[in-house]
Structure formats: structure tokens, C-alpha cells
Amino acid sequence: MLRIKGIVSLLLVVLFCAGSSVWAQTVSVKLQEGIYQETTGNLPEAMTIYAEIIENGDSTDTQAATAMFRLGMCQLMTGDKEKAAGTFKQVITRYPSESEVVEKAKNQLEKLNSGSIGKVIQVSLLEDLQEAIDVAEPNDTIILGKGTYTQPVIISKGITLRGASRTDSVFEVTADQAAISINTMGKGKTKLENLTFKWQLASSNPGTNVLGAVTVVDSRAEIEGCYFKALGNTKRCPKAVMHLGNSEVNIIRSRFEGFEHPICYNGGTRGTIQDCLIMDSGHQGVLLHAGSEVNVVGNVICGHRFHGVRSLGGKLNAKDNLVADNQYHTGFYMINNTRGSIINNVMTGNSVGVGGYAQTMMNIENNVFMGNDSGVLMYGPSFTIKNNIFQGNSRALKLHKSPLGENIISINTLWDNTIDFENFIEEPNSIRGESCFVDADHGNFALTNPVFTALNQGLTDPEIFIVLWNRWKNRTDPNEPFVIIW
Fold first, then answer.
1. ω into 481 cis (within 30 of 0)
2. What tens digit of pLDDT does each residue of 29-61 get?
3. What domains sit in the chain, N to C, each tagged with a CATH number?
4. C-alpha distances in angstroms, 396 versus 78, 88, 270, 393?
5. What is the pTM of this model?
6. Nearest-angstrom CA–CA distance, 309 and 318
7. Is the pLDDT of residue 11 over 50?
8. If exposure means fewest CB atoms within 10 Å of the residue's CB, which of 116, 132, 342, 462 is most exposed?
9. Furthest C-alpha separation in the chain
10. DSSP letter at 274?
11. Distance (Å, whole) CA 198 – CA 142
């Protein structure tokens, strides 16, 4: 099952509103509509849809288990912990083979049994949000009513702040402080979910450039299903999410538009960026400082003025990403002591797909480099480059003003590049021949030639890129990456 999940597109909303004909559609469409109703705050309607999916004989185990788990989450949001616990137990006993959903159900039960799920607090636009946060207890959930919130708030405890509707629960803040500042001093975990952030600085005061719309200091936090949009130019909007101190922050299925450096992990921080759309920044989409550790998984990273992902010496593991149209510079740009891996990614339309300077040590394996000016550009790093496909680039691999050093380049496929090897001798284990993608123009990079498959060339998991390719092509749709795909 594909990992990408989210809410339904506007097209599906129109179909649902058209009447009973929607119920003749697939169970998948029903599940999408249930999630849409849930994320827009219509819990009774969502629970009705989930119940029908569970009882529908046409539902697969995956669909039924997902519907049952989400039914339990809705029951939890209404404050009925006993009923929610019963629903989670049913997920575990009725669908033991659905390991991903079962694990989520077990986690929720563990929280319920330990008392780590607190009460649900509803807050409207007319109420004082900061006061509600201050009186909330650890593990409480605050449901933010529809409306535009213009005042910054500070969170100093492990709570969940969830929008009743992602499109209508909006922080629109102009201030020399973050819209939400999180500093729990390592106690508990804070979660932001289903919210929109529109933010900019009020002035150019020194020191404000370290701020983001959300700034996390010495805390564990999770951001899921949120939309970050720069309210002004990139200089007034330095970061969307800024991580400082000893923080661990995971960002899941969220959208980032604009900002100078949308996601920034400072030294000592760590986390995962997964299933996000990160686009059109003034510099780079993701910035890692020395001493940070970040996993970048399943994202579309595109249209940045300089780099898609830039590491100044952190530990970077990148997998299953589509990195596209970063035309001025590099998809992945790494300097100093960057360590890690770049595996099962597609780099297309960039000035450089992957670029590395001295002291960088990376494994670059099983990727597709297509239509870049340079596939891999080396300034004396230590790269292991193998099992990649280089197709239609101006240069497949280029060595720039440095010795080849300790780079290991072995068994890569080369086809239709203007130059395959620039400034160094061709590697003898290279494979010449068309890799025969099923349909590269639509993101299907599976191979039709069994010879290349037997040699482990190209992507280890091409399926995810059909989804990511569509996400990239539809990137102007504000419902991306929130559209559910099965």
C-alpha cells in the first residue's frame, strides 16, 4: 500500500455533494470522503462513513482496518475514550495482517492505558487561545475552531493543537516572533495538526532571521497535515519551521510555499520530513546545519532558487524523493562533513542532481538522474555511486577542479547523455544501453528490460514515483499533498 495519505481533492467533494451516485463509486472514494469530513470537523458524518466501509463486503482488509482505526480516532476526539479503546482492540483482533494500522492502534491503546491521552478542549475564535494553552494539562488536545488567529502563542508543555479545518483554522501573523513557539524543555511531545500558517516578520531587526512561522526549541514535536505559506517576500519570511537546541521534530504530509529556507534543522536537532510538498523557496527547501540528523523520505522538492536540500555538515538520509526543477543550482548540495545516503530518488530538471565538496561521504545508489545539466558533480568528495541510471543529462558525471580521490563509481547505466564522464576516465563497469522505462513522461520509472533489472539498475521501489510525479505536476493545487491515494 502506498504510504501517501491525506484528504480528498475538491473534485471528490463536488462528486460527494452531487448526491447518492457517489455511493456507486469505489470504497476508496468513500474512505477519501470520510477523511475529508473528519479533517473539516464533521465528525458525525465521518463516523457514519467509516462504519459503512467496515460493514461493506467490497472493502479490502486494508480499507476496513483504516476505516476502523479512523473511527476510533474520531471517537477519541469526541471524548469517548472507552468506545475508542474498544474500536482499537477490534482493529488488532480483526485485522492482524494489517501491520501498519495495527501498530497505530496499539500505540493509541498504550496511551489510553497509561493515561497519556488527556481531555479534548474546544476553542473558538472569540476565546483567548493563549489562555486555553496555559490552562491545558500535558497530553490534552485543543481543537482550534474555524477562523483567522492573528496573535502569536507559546506552547511550553506536551499538548496537541489541532485545527477543526485545515483550510479554515488559520494563523495569519505579522510579528517579530513565531506564530507558534514551542519550548517544552524536553518534557512531553507537542503536535500541530490540520492548520494553515501564513506568517511574516514585522521588521528587519537583527536576530529575527532565526525565527520561523513555527519555532521549536529543546522539544519533541510533530507537525502533520499543515499548510505553510509565506505571507510576504522571502526576506520577511526566513523560515517556515525552525528547529533549535536539542529538538526532535517530524514533519509529515505538509505543504510549504515560499520562505527563504522553509525547513531548517540547526546543529543538535534531528527528525524526519516525510510525504511533503516543498516548493518555490528563495534559497533551499531543506537546510541541515552541522551536527543535525535528518531523514528526508517521500517528498516532492521543487522550484527552489538555489538548492532542493542543502547540508552544511549534518547526517542526511534521503529516500523516495522527487527532486525537480531546482534550476540555478543543485537538487542535493553537500559540503563539509556531510554523511549519509541518497537512495531511490529521482532527480530531474536540475542544474545539478547531486553535488558534493571535499570531506563529504555519501552512498548514492539506485537513483534516476534524468534531464539535468549535470547528474553528479564532484568537488573532491568521497562518493559511492552505483546502480544509478543517468539518462538525457548534459553531463552524467563531472569531476570539477579536483582529483577523483576516494570516489567509487561502479555499474551505472548511461544513455543519451551529451557527455557521460567529464574530466576523468570512463569507468569500465558502466552499462551502455536504454534502460526502457515503462512511461517516464508520467513518472513510471519501472524497467521493461529484464537485463537491467537483473543487474539491480535504477529504482528499488519505482511505484511511489507515479504518485510523486502527479503531485509535482499538480503542485499548484492547494490540496496537494493532502490528496489520498491508494
1. yes
2. 888 888 878 877 788 999 999 999 999 888 899
3. 10-114 (1.25.40.10), 152-473 (2.160.20)
4. 56, 51, 32, 6
5. 0.83
6. 10
7. no
8. 116
9. 70
10. E
11. 20
Cα–Cα dist 382/416, whole Å: 26
Q: Which of 103, 79, 99, 78 is nearest to 88 (CA)?
A: 103
Residue 163 CB partners (closer than 8 Å, separation 6+): 143, 144, 169, 193, 194, 195, 196
* CA-to-CA dists, residue 85 to 48, 73, 75, 76, 136, angstroms: 18, 9, 9, 8, 23
* Three-state SS annotation for 181-247: EECCCCCCEEEEECCEEEEECCCCCCCHHHCEEEEEECCEEEEECCEEEECCCCCCCCEEEEEECCC
- Helices and strands (H, E) in the chain, number of each type: 9, 40
Q: Which three cell numbers mark 115? A: 493515561
Q: At what angle do helices 61-77 and 43-55 cross, to 10 degrees?
A: 150
In this structure, what C-alpha cell is assigned to residue 341?
545516503
Roughly how many angstroms between the first and final C-alpha of the chain, as a whole number? 7
DSSP state at residue 23: G
